[in-house]
Amino acid sequence: MTDPAFLDAGDLRLAYRLAPGSGPALLFLPGYASDMSGTKALALEQWAQAQGREYCRFDYAGCGESEGAFEDQTLERWRDDVLAMIDRVVTGPVILVGSSMGGWLMLLAAALRPDRVAGLVGIAAAPDFTDWGFTQEQKLEMLSKGRLEEPSDYSDQPTVTTRAFWTSGEANRVMIGPIAFDGPVVLLQGQRDPDVPWERALGLAERLRSAEVQTWLVKDGDHRLSRERDIALLIRAVEEVTARCSSSNPSP
Fold this sequence. Notes:
Elements: E1 5-8, E2 13-19, E3 22-29, H1 39-51, E4 53-58, H2 75-88, E5 94-99, H3 101-112, E6 117-123, H4 129-132, H5 136-145, E7 147-150, E8 159-162, H6 163-170, E9 185-190, H7 199-207, E10 213-218, H8 228-248
Parallel strand pairs: 3-4, 3-5, 5-6, 6-9, 9-10
Antiparallel strand pairs: 1-2, 2-4, 7-8
């Protein structure tokens, strides 16, 4: 794997890998405590390169190869990292592909860059999980101790959630009214996802203002949706959104 490029984000540098190509560009947004080297990010990059499609994957501050300490970060900081990639790395219209927490960040970024974000693909999108993803006891522990440490099903390291991140999440909830996005959207959701109840995908679809929203349920799908057949479905979803973005914005 080639060394990443780095974007100067003021106080630190963000690592990213950009494959040039035609638009609309694809920007992959990882989940919480994840990075750009995951199965879905790499598989989508391989597909995009074969198609000659511009594609970017990157690490949020404090994650992967980017600078910074993980526990210093907040949802707002990571939202701003996404905006930096949109503003300074990818070109033209962009389709955001958000996995889990990345699905929350894609909604925040789309609201702030309506002239740039043309389409959305959510993979087990988890907007507002600081509200519904923790018990009352866990929330009280975060508030009183400043951090919550839990065993992880996806790593040998525990998952840490800080009070600063939780507070930032609560201040940036989006599932409180209509979501003003009018472009094409596909939401992929496993019905055996232990982290994001599949009904939440239906709730998100209902709140999105766009009439071009599809929800694809995978009955035996888990949270990661990283099996070979899940990856094939993800690529189909990206193809669907890309085609609809291209048809609505034909090249001159």
